[in-house]
Design brief:
The complex is a heterotrimer of chains A (405), B (530) and C (187). Helix content of chain A is 47%, strand content 15%. Chain A has 405 residues and is α+β, with helices and mostly antiparallel strands. Chain A starts with a helix and ends with a helix. Chain B has one domain: Cytochrome C Oxidase, Chain A (Up-down Bundle), CATH 1.20.210. Chain B is mainly alpha-helical and 530 residues long. In chain B, 68% of the residues are buried. Chain B has 16 helices and no strands. Chain C has two domains: 1-37; 41-185, Sandwich (Ctag/Cox11 (Pfam 04442)). Chain C is built from two helices and nine strands; from the N terminus they run αβββββββββα. In chain C, the strands form two sheets. Chain C has a five-stranded mixed beta sheet. A four-stranded antiparallel beta sheet of chain C has the order 2-4-8-6, with no helix packed on it. By secondary structure, chain C is α+β, with helices and mostly antiparallel strands. The chains are: A alpha+beta (405), B mainly alpha (530), C alpha+beta (187). Chains in contact: A-B, A-C, B-C. The interface between A and C is medium-sized, with 37 and 33 residues. Chain B: Residues 26-530 form the Cytochrome oxidase subunit I profile domain. Chain B: It is a multi-pass membrane protein. Chain B: Pathway: Energy metabolism; oxidative phosphorylation.
Chain lengths: 405, 530, 187
Amino acid sequence: MAIAEKTAVGVTVFDLQFAFVQRQRRSHVARTSYLCWSLLTFLLAFSTQSAEMPLNMTQGVTEISQQVYDLHMKIFYICCAIGIAVFGVMFWSIIHHRKSKGVEPAQFHESTKVELLWTAFPVVILIIMAIPATQTLIAMEDTSEADVSILITGSQWKWHYKYMDHKVEYFSLLATPRQQIDNKLSKGENYLLEVDRPLVIPTGKKVRFLVTSDDVIHSWWVPAFAVKKDANPGFINEAWTRVDHPGIYRGQCAELCGKDHGFMPVVVVAKEPADFEQWIAQESATQAAAKEAELKLLAMNMSKDELMALGEKTYMGYCAACHQPNGMGIPGVFPALKGSKMALEDLPAHIDIVLNGKTGTSMQAFDKQLTLSEIAAVVTYERNAWDNNTGDLVQAADIAKAQSK
Amino acid sequence: MSTVTTDPHAHAEHEHHGPAKGLKRWLYTTNHKDIGTLYLLFSLLMFFIGGAMAMVIRAELFQPGLQIVEPNFFNQMTTVHGLIMVFGAVMPAFTGLANWLIPMMIGAPDMALPRMNNWSFWILPFAFSILLASLFMEGGGPSFGWTFYAPLSTTYSNDSTALFVFSVHIMGISSIMGAINVIVTIMNLRAPGMTYMKMPLFVWTWFITAYLLIAVMPVLAGVVTMVLTDKYFGTSFFDAAGGGDPVLFQHIFWFFGHPEVYIMILPAFGIISSIVPTFSRKPLFGYASMVYATSSIALLSFLVWAHHMFTTGMPVAAELFFMYCTMLIAVPTGVKVFNWVATMWRGAMTFEVPMMFSLAFIVLFTIGGFSGLMLAITPADFQYHDTYFVVAHFHYVLVTGAIFSIMAAAYYWLPKWTGHMYDETLGQWHFWCSLISVNVLFFPMHFVGLAGMPRRIPDYALQFADFNALISIGGFAFGLSQLLFVWLVVKCIKGGEKATDQVWEGAEGLEWTIASPAPYHSFTTPPEIK
Amino acid sequence: MALKHQPVVIKLCLLTAAMFGFGYALVPLYDVFCDLTGLNGKTSTMAATAEAAIPDKQREVLVEFIARPNNNMPWVFEPVVHKIRVHPGEIHRIDYLAHNITGRSMTAQAVPSVSPGQAALYFNKMECFCFTQQHLTAGQQLLMPLQFYVDPALPEQFSTITLSYTLYEVDAVAPVTAETATGDNNE
């Protein structure tokens, strides 16, 4: 409730200031008054109807985010006060000192006293602003020891999370189905803000994020934590948070990182420490078991249907962003797979590029991102989908063989 | 009707040598007025091309989901929209105004280097043809944002980067030549008695802007060259693998980029400082402090670049330094706004279109200044950075700031250029349509940004849908409103009420002492300034 | 008239050329600035000499090691220990394992980065595999050493230092250096 109230106040002031500007204008040009008025009603109607979008910065769920919010509001109010004073004088003058009222213009054109005053006065206001800003900034950069450290790696266009003290790591991809983006299905509640595997952190503990990137610059942003840090390739950046309440917090990549920059959300689930411990223990066990299962798979052969089904799923998740769902790629940017020499003929090179990537291009190495069977399936899919029809079946064992070559 | 000629300069032919006929006149011209006209028309064309791209962006963002364009093309639109508007619309418009006005304002017969002047204009169409042509190559044009952050613009871009770099080089050369011309003209060609502290503020602000251009355009040329060699010639300025650093790119880029922002606003300050006194019928308040404020803004602009990169990870001390310096810029900027308000105070104001645009400039630019001040506060910037709040901020200072001042200037000096008064009713329509639509367009962006919508995304979460629809409506309305301006200018060139030499009752300055339209050659003998 | 303009034009052209040069000068200046302030956590690319630093037994600093092959670099690359507690001034040596699992010879360069950035100024490497390129033949494994100490002058507020290496493939253009690197590391 408190959030809603404060937001409402903020908005009112913003609107009032705007309304003020508009209203003053309206008073002297009658024929446009109707237009202005309808605009105002329109704007106000919007601010009441679209209740689902907050109209102000979030207060967030951490002490820091609250401090940032308070700072934001403080400076906003100071700006409003200055604005009202300056524009007030200006519009008073516009109304009263106009030629049509028959006034004689004064001829003064300087006053050292006044000019010094309005140079000094803003300096004082700026100092008043700078003090809390400095305090908050220093609090944000507190580098004391953390309870949990997580390495966050951005790449085109997904996030990878690795818990430094556990054998748990995974990719986090956009979960919104392609059909929703293409307007073929109605959009879900968390459209574009949902991922397959969210980051999980404990509440009440200091969680440290080490942020880096594998290709271009990304920026990891969760508004509710007031954490936004650039992920620079080759360098690590540090940020931290301490979340008090369990919940699901959503954000997005904030730095233009290529074609699908708008499609790499961040979702963080904060759990009670006990729940977190349970989750991470289970996750470690699952990931260890998956590795073992992977080895067993080597002995097994999957049928073409199985390979194609798994391959299509993997392709849509990891490959389609660049090579496109129809395998046509984007000419000049991402090569087509449909009808390409590599997908039709050179099988060893095909497996090699999926496993190891290609230096100096956007083609990543999927060796550590996908399981053996997923790689086998996706290669099979690429060689048989979209009229490629080579009939080649690739099994996990073939991939393992290629790996050890 | 036979007395009304379609060529405003035709009567100048009676003088010793007037303009040549036809296309050759424009191709070979060394006349500052012709070149000024070319610059202004070129920038108007670019304004509409860049605007058309903005319309594509707003059409795609009208609703959530992908409807009209693919994300890759969307990114090309945001990139080229930014480049065209900055380098093709705003900067050439100011250069055009400088060409037309500076010689007339300081009592010079022409620019100091007229042949170079011809070159600095005529290479521009080539630069922008190259940039626009790159959109049609395989894989499309540049799609890494107008800020072209490495390594997105190096390793991860397609070959349009080479064309982009080449066109930026040409734009840079053009701007530098223009700036050299302005400085030499102001230093050497002032009429006798026109001391520096008697120059009109438009001349002063351009003098300072020209120095900024010479200081930072070469840095831009350097950084695009580094991008080029990183991509094609194996250097590693910005590639961590080779010992470089992608963050270094941002430091060099913004060392250019922040002064660039002031290059686009200082001449606007000069324009407003010319118009407000005229329509207040009262001399400008605090001329000297305006000059000092402009200079200190220019100097400070070299010390604040890293406020664009607080999230890249910086030591606290550096963050504090850049935060304090940035906040300091509010002081001289505030002085300017206070001076304009004091100029109006106890004046005798009238509200013709140039004055309306100037008043809108003062209010809306100040709102842009407030959001700028908020953005300077580092901890809050972590939330604002790269959201629509930033988009709202820089469109308030560049559209309702720079563009509105250019509009104001066009209305103010059109009678002097064409010899005809523009259509006041049509002008008021243009003003009010622009004012309302521009606020419907950009004001809600503040809210969308605060609510957490990142910039440069082709699709967005459902909560942002209503506001984006509203913003798009504002965008289309603003785009359409500008057609009124074209209509008005065409009308004004063709005919209209004859303008007097002084044009405006309260106008002061040398340009108002010569005939309207300004003769092809003015001040061939310098005027005497008391 | 033209003569009157010439000196100004020449000066302005020189200024333009100087600013173009300054753009390039920003590259080394940036490195100097990074060395002075620890901007962006760059560490020195030169071996530090072991000064007669007296270990500060009163104080402990946690040093974490992160090793990441870049995403189109198919090697296995990881530190043998992931974190240690050290007294500032003490010299420590840890090893990193590199394994070229591909079927071809490859050359790699590890790029260091330290967080928090300012701590990079106090993190001294006496020996590091990151000073040179590393060449591994198909299937070869290698233990690569890092010898370092934390300067006792490290400001109090830093209690954790994270050292990250990103491993990049280098186009095999300098076979001579690659050979020397191999020779050095076949221990």
